[in-house]
Amino acid sequence: MHFTLLSLAALASAATAQTLVDTLKSDTDLSTLLSLAGKYPDLVKTLESASDVTVLAPTNEAFTEWSSTTFGKAIGNSDAAVQALLSYHVLGAKVPASAFKTTPAFVPTLLNTPAYTNVTGGQVVEGKLNGTTIEITSGLLEVSKVVKGDIPWNGGLIHKIDKVLTFPQLVSTTAKFAGLLDVTAALVAAGLVSEVDETKDLTVFAPTNAAFQKLGPAAANLTVDQLTDILGYHGFTDFQDGAVIETLQGQSVKVSIKNGNVFVNNAEVVVPDVLVANGVVHVIDSVLSPSNSTGSAGPKTTGTVAPSASTTGSGSSGAPTSSPITPFSPSAASSTKILDAFTSIMAALTASFFLF
């Protein structure tokens, strides 16, 4: 009899499940999303045929706020951009509210349009539990909060959020947003903006301005070869505790996790996981020096871990997996070109980040 009751409950649930459009129609607070999605019938058709996905649905108020922002004004009249943005609001897995934990998880979305992302497996969002609130972090470190979760529909779940997501921007755009004018100028002078913005699956470890100040006047006197060594020593991949990783420069660094804090040699990651269109940026508090390495020789670490925490893979039910962004280290030629531009302005650098 107990089995019969469970079966009847399952049948009742299946009978009452709705399409995505019908589910959005049933909530007046999602009418703006419904209206916007209705402009793109092919996208709606794709979503209606999907299974085991999660829609992050901004409220009407969220869209009102977004429409007055610089980002909203910039893409609001572009059908291609709006469709890309809507795709970024769909997680490629059924992720219930209970799956989010205090440790961040990185979930791939359906945004894979080359004009807006250059990340293997689809651009990601970061999700974590802050107290009792689920927070979703998107591009430019924008945080959206889930105000109502686990709304069922035929293809999966809907979580209502209080802010429209910002899809990750180009590295150069992110640098400008952060006020990194000297870095931007250097990339322009070196003719590297396109290469940095377009290189697939990029990982950047960026020392803060305070980290460079520790170098003192000697920074301005470094030779191109010395700077090439330093820059090449900032390209690596994994955040597994104890991992010994070969860098672009050829020497190794050691990753350690102490009391929940991530260190690369003796440099601490102070701002992790800044998503960009083609990968991720991590900010560290010290410049890594190949002449003062705490890494030791050992097996080469390979893999595709770029964000500092777990990643939720497509088709899962929210359980973390090890399927993250594939990192990228700039080529030696790229490093030399960057250094040619930086040599002339090194003494004047006052930006908050140093890319590569």
Explain how this protein is built:
The protein is an alpha+beta fold. Helix content is 30%, strand content 23%. It contains 13 helices and 15 strands. The chain has helices spanning 2-16, 20-25, 31-37, 41-48, 60-67, 70-75, 79-88, 171-177, 181-189, 193-198, 209-213, 224-232, 332-343; strands spanning 53-58, 90-91, 105-108, 124-130, 133-137, 143-153, 156-161, 202-207, 244-246, 252-258, 261-264, 267-276, 279-284, 310-312, 320-321. The chain has a nine-stranded mixed beta sheet. Strands 8-13-12-11-10-9 form a six-stranded mixed beta sheet. Strand 14 and strand 15 form a beta hairpin. Helix 12 crosses helix 13. The longest helix has 15 residues, at 2-16. The protein starts with a helix and ends in a 13-residue tail after the last helix. The model is unreliable at 1-15, 226-238 and 295-356 (pLDDT under 50).
Main sheet record: 9 strands, mixed
Number of strands: 15
Shape, principal axes of CA atoms: elongated
Q: What order do the SSEs take from the amino end to the carboxyl end, as H and E?
A: HHHHEHHHEEEEEEHHHEHHEEEEEEEH
Strand order of the largest sheet: 2-1-7-6-5-4-3-14-15
The overall pLDDT average reads 73
In whole angstroms, the N-to-C terminal distance is 65 Å
Q: Rg from C-alpha positions? A: 22 Å
Helix fraction, binned, reads 25-40%
Quick structural gist:
Helices cover 30% and strands 23% of the residues.
Write the layout of secondary structure elements.
Layout: H1 2-16, H2 20-25, H3 31-37, H4 41-48, E1 53-58, H5 60-67, H6 70-75, H7 79-88, E2 90-91, E3 105-108, E4 124-130, E5 133-137, E6 143-153, E7 156-161, H8 171-177, H9 181-189, H10 193-198, E8 202-207, H11 209-213, H12 224-232, E9 244-246, E10 252-258, E11 261-264, E12 267-276, E13 279-284, E14 310-312, E15 320-321, H13 332-343
Parallel strand pairs: 1-7, 3-14, 8-13
Antiparallel strand pairs: 1-2, 3-4, 4-5, 5-6, 6-7, 9-10, 10-11, 11-12, 12-13, 14-15
Helix pairs in contact: 12-13
